[in-house]
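Much of what follows relies on a compact textual record of a protein's fold. An example makes this concrete, so a full record is given next.
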Amino acid sequence: RNLRQENSSRSQFYNVWHCGRSIYRSEGFAGLYRGCCITLIRDVPSGGAYILTYYTMTRWLGNADGDCNKAEKAGKIMLAGGMAGVVDWTLSIAPDTLKSRIQTAPPDMYPRGARDAFRDMMATEGPRGLFHGLSAVMLRAFISNAFC
């Protein structure tokens, strides 16, 4: 059982405001931003890859604004969006796993943030630990990005 599973059976916070106040009181202002750097490491490259993939796929599949019926146009846009979502999460899954580990751990468990979390994960779970839930994430990424 991991930390999240142990804490999921009982909630220690009444609402989001109570959670924020409790973190602020125990860890200070910096506690509210724990995991911010790893979030940027996750979001910046994957966001760029999403846009590049979507743009490339729409051009490769043929201009979605060109001469095709509405169903064909929608299909091209959905395929491009779905593939862009898969590429995005392929790059995001490992940093997201580290971010979740950092944010759910006790404040003093990973004093150097992602580096300590990465070392701990490699020692306890190996590289596969970074990719827990990959198949479910890929399925959700394709579906949600194809339709949104």
User: Anything to note?
Assistant: The chain is about 70% helix and 0% strand. The radius of gyration is 19 Å. The chain has a mean pLDDT of 88. The helical segments are 3-8, 16-27, 36-60, 70-104, 114-124, 134-147.
